[in-house]
Amino acid sequence: MRYFPRQVVQRALADETLHGRMAFIAGPRQVGKTTAIQRFLAHRGQGRLLYNWDTPTVKRRFAANPGFFVEDLPQEQDRPWVAFDEIHKYPKWKNLLKGYYDEWRQRIRFVVTGSARLELFQRSGDSLVGRYFLFHMLPLGVREVVGEKAREAPSWSPDAPSPIIPTASPEVGRALEGLLNLTGFPEPLAVGTQNFCRRWRDNHTSLIVGEDLRDLTKIVQVRKLETLLYLLPERVGSPLSLNALRAPLEVAHGSIRSWLEALKAVYVVFSIPPWTARLARAVRKEQKYYFWDWGMVTASGPRFENFLAVQLQRAIAAWNEQGLGPFHLHYLRTKDGAEADFAIGDRSQVRLLVEAKETDTVLGPTLATLQAKVQAPLAIQVVNRTGVCVQKGRGLYVMGADRFLMLLP
Questions:
Q1: Do residue 248 and residue 272 come from a single domain?
Q2: With a threshold of 0.85, does the pTM exceed it?
Q3: Is there a domain that residue 344 lies in?
Q4: Region 63-88: what's the mean pLDDT?
């Protein structure tokens, strides 16, 4: 089965990035975290230094000797990597990691992989503050699918005043088609059939709802949460009204909000808020929700928009993890109905506006207006076509998805 090299591993495990800290790599279940770290360690002759805390072998070794991994360290290698996978399932994992790091950081470099649980403790007091950097491994992008040739092409970043628009090879178009029709998760994309992808998706969703949500939350009404999960795809692309979901779910507003937060915590969905700075009459409350697996959305137009949302989140994670940010993803919507699907901004300025159009290469009437209102240096109407790139004004383009995605890291 084909392996897709993950860019985040090179970014996260570089000495010039970490400066002695631990690397935490979080992301959706089955997105390829464990496989990527296995290959990274094996390439360095350190393959046996990956420890899965879900296995009885590791549990037994830990019970006999909490510092069991030190026994496996190669004598001839200076500061080898030790990887802990699923260590968050140990009840006192934060204090345990703190002790490991404080005692052995001069001898060992640590990388920790796991689900969204790795991020939860950031919201409260944390004994690991100052000891790690957090990175995100998200569903695949075009550059990872195409491979080394694509990654050699320079990408754009929000601190660049104007982009150099890249060309896109036929391989990019094929990668785009495969991603859109299947998913950004490595296994079903590598198999490449709709039948396998559907069965994988059903299993993946059942695993998350049946195990991750059960372990992470105190949610009792799991069946109603599943109903919410199947109500969301038809609402992708529009600001989500929680009040509109109360009737079909027959629960209170607060329950729906907590369920959505739980689905975000286990990387099923993510939300983006409206941009409100420097925009008169902006919508200020309702958020949009998207799936990390855009294949959950069956309608082609919303699926394309969801796909672009994930690709933009990937880019923002890369920029922020390189120290270029902080950047965040928003949408623009005024009370007059003018809207742009996506806005990438820092704390004060929109750097990029994106409008998703499945096939329409005619520039919509509102994108240029919103670009002027928020003074965004770049605004792009992205269409699900290949080879298209037409400049409509200063920093204003209609562009095919293949060429647009080659702009992103």
A1: yes
A2: yes
A3: yes
A4: 92
